[in-house]
Amino acid sequence: xxxxxxxxxxxxxxxxxxxxxxxxxxxxxxxxxxxxxxxxxxxxxxxxxxxxxxxxxxxxxxxxxxxxxxxxxxxxxxxxxxxxxxxxxxxxxxxxxxxxxxxxxxxxxxxxxxxxxxxxxxxxxxxxxxxxxxxxxxxxxxxxxxxxxxxxxxxxxxxxxxxxxxxxxxxxxxxxxxxxxxxxxxxxxxxxxxxxxxxxxxxxxxxxxxxxxxxxxxxxxxxxxxxxxxxxxxxxxxxxxxxxxxxxxxxxxxxxxxxxxxxxxxxxxxxxxxxxxxxxxxxxxxxxxxxxxxxxxxxxxxxxxxxxxxxxxxx
DNA sequence: AACCTTGTCAACCGCGGTCCT
DNA sequence: GAGGACCGCGGTTGACAAGGT
Length: 315
Description:
Arc Repressor Mutant, subunit A, 3 domains, 12 helices, about 5% strand, elongated
């Protein structure tokens, strides 16, 4: 036995709302509120509509704080940044944009913004929050240094998130750097990120040795002894826009973003494995955690960086 | 001018989660 | 604890407009 329908579909009006219906709904809600029961509302208000339809109409169109009209460049960047990080959780993304609804954001992404990203008209911030004052909040995103290209420029197409198997395959399933890491670093589509020096050092443990993260110009990393069979090509991390605090800039070439990159470095599974802090993309919002915690996590999950490159699949 | 294609966006649908009895 | 009622969400649809042929 399935769930009973929320309304009698034969006796409710469907399709576009008329101005009269809008007026009735708006007037009723302004006088009585929704009283927490949308199903009963249309009958009380005298509307021949399904309660869900009333709710949608109010939330997406009639609410007084709804912002109608085009999206700003800053809104574009917030959407791109969050989509890159959390995917199609439109309600969460919309909650970060004043006056926008999840439906608005979803439609905007599907019809316009996705194309802008693909054609390279938008690139995400390259130097977000270089401020030395960390903020505990990750609910706001500074876009002050973001760049938007008004003339289309060639850019690599969107790629799916890098799954461990794919990455392993890309690297030849072992210590074979058939796809040098530097090909993934510095690609112009990705979402440039920053890594705390101590984290970078830690992440490379067993894979590479850190040459120098404190310099102001560039950082070179080469495979460690454990990876002696790998290519001897040094891996260059773009540090040109790094500030004097020693942060290291890096980027990925796919929508997997920071998590995928961290996987490449051997941190293991992507996603929220790091409890959110290890994959923060705004250094200003990340406090200098003790990344040695990750050793415990690795141990608990029986995963080590080296295992990744030996083709051991993570669960 | 007529037809076709593409883009846009409001609205619908169904599912999972939560609350209440 | 079970089951019903409702809410909220994300995916999808369909009507309409605009642009192209």
